[in-house]
Amino acid sequence: MQLIETGACPVRKLGRIAAGLSMLSANLLGASAALAQDSGDDEPQVVVHDLMKEPAPGPNTYVYDSSILFYKESGSRVQAVEPVFNVQNYLTNGSIISGNFTFDTLTGATPNGATPSTSDQTFNSIVREKTTSTQVTSTGASGGGTVTTIPGTAYAKSSYSVPARTLPLASFHDHRFAGNGGLSWLANPDTRLNVGLGASVERDYTSFTANFGIARDLNQKNTTLSLSVNLEEDISRPYNGTPAPFQELNSQIGGGNDTKATYGVLAGVSQTLARFWITQVNFNLSGSKGYQADPYRIVSVVDPVSGAPLDYLFESRPRSRTRESVYWGNKLALGPTVADVSVRYYHDTWGINSLTAEVSEQIPLGGSLYIKPLYRYYHQTAANFFTYYLVNGNALPAYASSDSRLSRFNANTIGGKIGVRVFKTGEFYVEGESYRQTGAHTVANAPGQLSGLDLFSGVHAISVMTGLRLRM
Asked: What global pTM score does this model have?
C-alpha cells in the first residue's frame, strides 16, 4: 500500500528522515536534514553542516545506533513498527563511512478520501496479487468485505462497506526496506565533502536518492558555510495501475507505472555568537516533476441538494511543485541545561504556507541521566486545489484532492526523551511523542446531509522510540 504524503500519517516521513539523518549526520560530523513539514511533503533530504551537534568521536572509532520505533494512530488507523540500525566508522584521516538499514511494517487503515454519508457506502479497490482461491471474506477497519480475483489479471479486488456517519477508511498491510550509505572526507583542514546514496523499496513504490555536500569553516571555526544538493527518483507502481485524473473508481484502470523526479538545494550558515549560544540559518529550495497524486485516494461527487454521494473519482494533483523554506535554529547553554529553539517558514506553489516552532531542553539529572522535554507547534494553509467533495453538475476543476493533509490545520506535538549512560561509552534512550491535528470539521454552506457530518480526517498519533547508541 503506497502511502503518498505523510502529514496525517507521518510513518513514511519518520522512516525516511530518520534514515537520512542517521546516515548523513555521520557524513558531516553531525548534520541536520531540512525539516519536513506536516503537510506531508517529502522534501529532499539535503544536508547542512551543523556545529550545534555533539563533537565527533575520535579516529579509529565505530558508533553503533540501533533503535525501534512504535507508531500508532487513534481510531484503529495506521500502526507501524520500524527497527533501524546505523553504523559509522571514523577513520584516522578524518574520513567517515556510514551505513543505515531500516525495515518497517505498516498495518491498519487510512482515509480513502471519500466523505462520510448518512447511509452506508461500499467501495472497490485493488488490494493485492490474487491467491489460488477466487473469493475470500475479510474484515477491515471500515467493516467486513469480500476479496475476489479479477478475471484475466494477476490481482484481487476488495469490496468493503463503511457504516453511515463513519469516515471511510481502507485497510492495508505493507512492508518497507530502506538502506543508505555515505562517505565524508576532508578536502583540507577547513573543508569537508560528503556523498551519499540511498534506496527505499515497497511492494508498489521505489525511491532512489543521491546527495552531495560541502562545508567550509571560517573565522577560527566559529563560522561554517555549507551547501548541499539532493536528487531523488521515485517510481509508483499501484496495483490497479496509475489512474487518470478524475477517473471513476469502478472503471478499469490499467495504467502503467509513473515516476517523479525531485531535486533540492540547501544553503546554510552556522555561527558561534557567544560561549553559550550557537545559531544556524538554512535556506532550502526544492522542486519536483512527475506523478504526485495518491493512486488510491478518491474524491466524492455529491448531489447539490441532498449532499448524498453519487460517484467517486480519483484525485488530480499538479505534476510539478516548487518548495521554499527558511529555518532558524538556536542552541543555548543555560547553566547545566541546553535549550534548542527553532522556527521554520515554508511556502510552495500549491498554495501551502506553513510555520513550525519548536522548543526543547536537555536537563541533566546526575552524571549519567538526562531528560529532554519537547513541544512543537505547526500551522499550515490549504492547497489551492483542496476540497472535501465535488458537486455534481459543476464543471470539473483542473485539480482536486480531499486529502486533509493538504487542508488548513494546526498540529501540536508534546514529547520528551530520557537517556542514561551505559557501558561507559554508550547511551540507552527512550523518546515519546503525542501528535494531534486540529482543523475545520464542517464546511459552510455544505449541501444537505454534509452540513451535519464531520468531514475532517485529521489524526491523533502516539509514537515511542527506544534505542541503544554505543561508541567503540
From this structure: 0.86
